[in-house]
Amino acid sequence: MQQYKYLYTKRTAAKIRSFYRNVARKYCYTYSYEDMERNVRDAFFAIYAIERTLRRRKPTISRWEGYHMANTDKWYYAYTIEGDTITVVDACHAQNMHE
Q1: Which of 22, 50, 61, 75 has the smallest number of CB atoms closer than 10 Å to its CB?
Q2: What is the rounded CA–CA span in Å between residue 76 and residue 30?
Q3: For the CA atoms of 43, 8, 54, 52, what is the dihedral angle to 10 degrees?
Q4: How many other CB atoms sit within 10 Å of the CB of residue 50?
Q5: SS3 93
Q6: Assessment of whether the complete model's pTM goes beyond 0.70
Q7: How far apart, in Å, are the Cα atoms of 85 and each of 2, 13, 21, 27, 79?
Q8: To 5 degrees, how large is the angle CA 8–CA 9–CA 11?
Q9: C-alpha dihedral sign at 70, 89, 47, 44
Q10: Nearest 5°: phi and psi at 54?
């Protein structure tokens, strides 16, 4: 199995963090800061499963044309592969996967 280096863009990080920040604002009485931290961490850790356990797929939204796509149960990732480096260029929560 090939070893990859994983990078992600500022856009990817911002999308993940802002999604959970919005969840925390909306559900402030039931969704704790610790829940938010855990969910953000899990979303970032899932990036390291790309091309290992997350299968490569064709993008389902037009703005990701030209990229590969992988998904967990909650997050979709658009990424490129150059040599041994995988760069995640965008992320989208499953609730927001639409044109």
Answers
A1: 22
A2: 25
A3: -120
A4: 22
A5: strand
A6: yes
A7: 11, 18, 29, 37, 10
A8: 130
A9: negative
A10: -90, 125
Joined together, the tokens standing for residue 68 give 């590969």
Structure tokens at 50: 């790309």
Determine phi and psi for 97, rounding to 5 degrees: -80, 85
Helix (H, G, I), strand (E, B) or coil at 96: helix
Half-sphere exposure of 4 (CA within 13 A, CB side): 20
Rounded to 5 degrees, φ, ψ at 38 are -65, -45
β-partners of residue 70 are 77
